[in-house]
Task: structure prediction
Amino acid sequence: MRVLLVEDDELLGDGLCTGLKYYSYTVDWVRDGQHALDALQARNESFDTVVLDLGLPNLSGLDVLRSVRNNNINVPVLILTARESIEDRVKGLDAGADDYLTKPFKLEELTARMRALQRRSKARATPTIRYGEITLDPASHMIYQDNEQILISRREFALLQKLLENAGRVISREQLNQTLYGWGESIDSNALEVHIHNLRKRFGSKLIRTIRGVGYMAEKIEQ
Result:
């Protein structure tokens, strides 16, 4: 799951990045409202959840949230703030937030709330992807082949989900790497190829097609 963290406190932001990565999230961290808005409006970026502080420089968290919702960007947003009043909570929720967590907090509660947001978000969409003998459930993070549960790494799960959701379309290497890694993470030159190789080995060599010089695609099949 790819998370956009919007937090201007360096100590808290660094701690959250470390903690969320421990829980297998891919985290992109920005420190002000304008950069958050730019990231959310960029066509080549896609986030599963936004963790948004309200007291931000350049552009407040509420202004970011209102702009995002006015532009019909429906990514789940969890507000993270030191403001505890009911009035502040109401303002945030009315502006389009999906949940609200006040500081200080436990990382376990934050991740539990993020999982709940994802379950609700996936329930509104079509949660299960069926591709031939493969069934992939993003909400539960489970994958089955011929009704047998298959265990693969979180990055390979995210990669397979991206390809199957876009079966019949070529996905560029850049887009796939953005699915797998945060902005600050180093990427080995052949990391994507290794993940593709592992998926082909597990699900068959014909599952993923290489489009030379462009990227990869899962062939579109009749269900």
